[in-house]
Amino acid sequence: xxxxxxxxxxxxxxxxxxxxxxxxxxxxxxxxxxxxxxxxxxxxxxxxxxxxxxxxxxxxxxxxxxxxxxxxxxxxxxxxxxxxxxxxxxxxxxxxxxxxxxxxxxxxxxxxxxxxxxxxxxxxxxxxxxxxxxxxxxxxxxxxxxxxxxxxxxxxxxxxxxxxxxxxxxxxxxxxxxxxxxxxxxxxxxxxxxxxxxxxxxxxxxxxxxxxxxxxxxxxxxxxxxxxxxxxxxxxxxxxxxxxxxxxxxxxxxxxxxxxxxxxxxxxxxxxxxxxxxxxxxxxxxxxxxxxxxxxxxxxxxxxxxxxxxxxxxxx
Amino acid sequence: xxxxxxxxxxxxxxxxxxxxxxxxxxxxxxxxxxxxxxxxxxxxxxxxxxxxxxxxxxxxxxxxxxxxxxxxxxxxxxxxxxxxxxxxxxxxxxxxxxxxxxxxxxxxxxxxxxxxxxxxxxxxxxxxxxxxxxxxxxxxxxxxxxxxxxxxxxxxxxxxxxxxxxxxxxxxxxxxxxxxxxxxxxxxxxxxxxxxxxxxxxxxxxxxxxxxxxxxxxxxxxxxxxxxxxxxxxxxxxxxxxxxxxxxxxxxxxxxxxxxxxxxxxxxxxxxxxxxxxxxxxxxxxxxxxxxxxx
Lengths: 316, 295
What we know:
The structure holds 2 protein chains of 2 kinds.
Chain A: H1 2-57, H2 60-63, E1 67-68, E2 73-74, H3 77-108, H4 111-125, H5 129-147, H6 159-183, H7 187-195, H8 200-229, H9 232-237, H10 262-267, H11 270-274, H12 278-315
Antiparallel strand pairs in A: 1-2
Helix pairs in contact in A: 1-12, 3-6, 3-8, 4-6, 5-6, 6-8, 7-8, 8-12
Chain B: H1 2-20, E1 27-31, H2 33-50, E2 54-57, H3 61-70, E3 76-79, H4 85-90, E4 96-111, H5 112-116, E5 121-123, H6 124-131, E6 149-150, E7 152-153, H7 158-168, E8 181-182, H8 185-193, E9 198-203, E10 212-214, E11 216-220, E12 223-225, H9 229-233, E13 240-248, H10 253-263, H11 265-273, H12 279-287
Parallel strand pairs in B: 1-2, 1-3, 5-11, 6-9, 7-8
Antiparallel strand pairs in B: 3-13, 4-9, 4-10, 4-13, 11-12
């Protein structure tokens, strides 16, 4: 009898537990739904508000090289170019350093040292971007200006300055996520590689890195998302010059000239003039939609790659 | 777990209520960085002396002041340019009321190397030449052999509108020119000071004579006017402008209290302290026998 009672009590407890879990699940679903609805609403509002410019300018809104609000000419191509240029320069600087540092922390450093480095790097990731922006104004701008002196730049505010600054800002993201990706490679693979006679360098290059590649690319893509959307720091050092479409797309000259990114345009005072003029307003909101699309695309690709690596790790 | 969930929901509700009620009675001010200097100090005094809750910002400069007031999101807009008909027609529901608290001049400023290189004044034609990129090197103006690095104030900034009105009669007539842009006065001074061969437009009282220098304007061949208080008062300097507080209709309640403070002796002292012309100085200069104009 005592045994049966004990069993009954257990089953009642299990039912209670199930109910509690279901409440948690219910809350999670609601919160998840709120998040998804907000995102959908955001996209719908941006599409709705920017609709006039898509209707009037069509593809010229994306391909047009002239943004002259007084003449109702809205071409976002120079800003898309500026955004991509800043992001590519940033990744060009931050990716090799970040991945190299991640190999060092995950494969070479002892556990305690690794944790110390990770904590310090994650602290760096938490520094507000306006602080980076001020450092950019105080240090980086003058440094780039003096460095480029032989090339006679107009000023120190260039796409290159913006790119270097964003590079510093996304370095922690790349480092810490690449480190996670490398740590995610099963230890058994390392042991097997060593067992086959590979030395430490060969194990890292031939076994660990290829396994971690999807995760590292995901880290780069997530950093790209941040680089594309960074506003205030870029705003302070990029020069904010409109219509800087390069004559030759791969030329270096436009990179050492002032430019404009989607985010820096949105951060300026033009949004206040645009208010009240439906087409101008739509063109400004359209820039927001483009930015969301680019950053969102990078984040989605990163997510898919991370999932792929996770499945890969589980399978092996 | 239930307790945690309940607590979580409570916390969210509490936070949202708190946000919704965040300082409902605060006097909200936004606009020009030029007008901001005396107004921010006045706000500081009124906060401590009269316990007035005041929030103040310079988002978007003068056009930010106009459009946020037009949207009903602030109580007082600061503007360093007179309101245009376009501004009024954009917000037909708002009856804009201007209160002038002082007078200022827009100066053409250059960096130290240009000033030391001998460029001390510009004519309107020369300024147009720079804006239309016909003059691209200071040597064309008998200055140093260096490229002209022109920084344009963002369109919509009061300073830019006064500059464009002087050059082309109407800001809308200004040619579409792409230059590196600068926003607030601090940014403008900092950027011109740190760049060789630089030039921009800036509130005259911000031209410190150490890092950036105010050029004179050559109004007639051989006759140069500098942005001095006297030249502002008699309108011989072409780029003078009023410093305005904008409200929706006649100021009332706390808004009136603030506007009255700015017009009173303490507020006017603050206007003068920041290098602008107070209303009293303006009146005195205009009525003095040495004043050339008497309008």
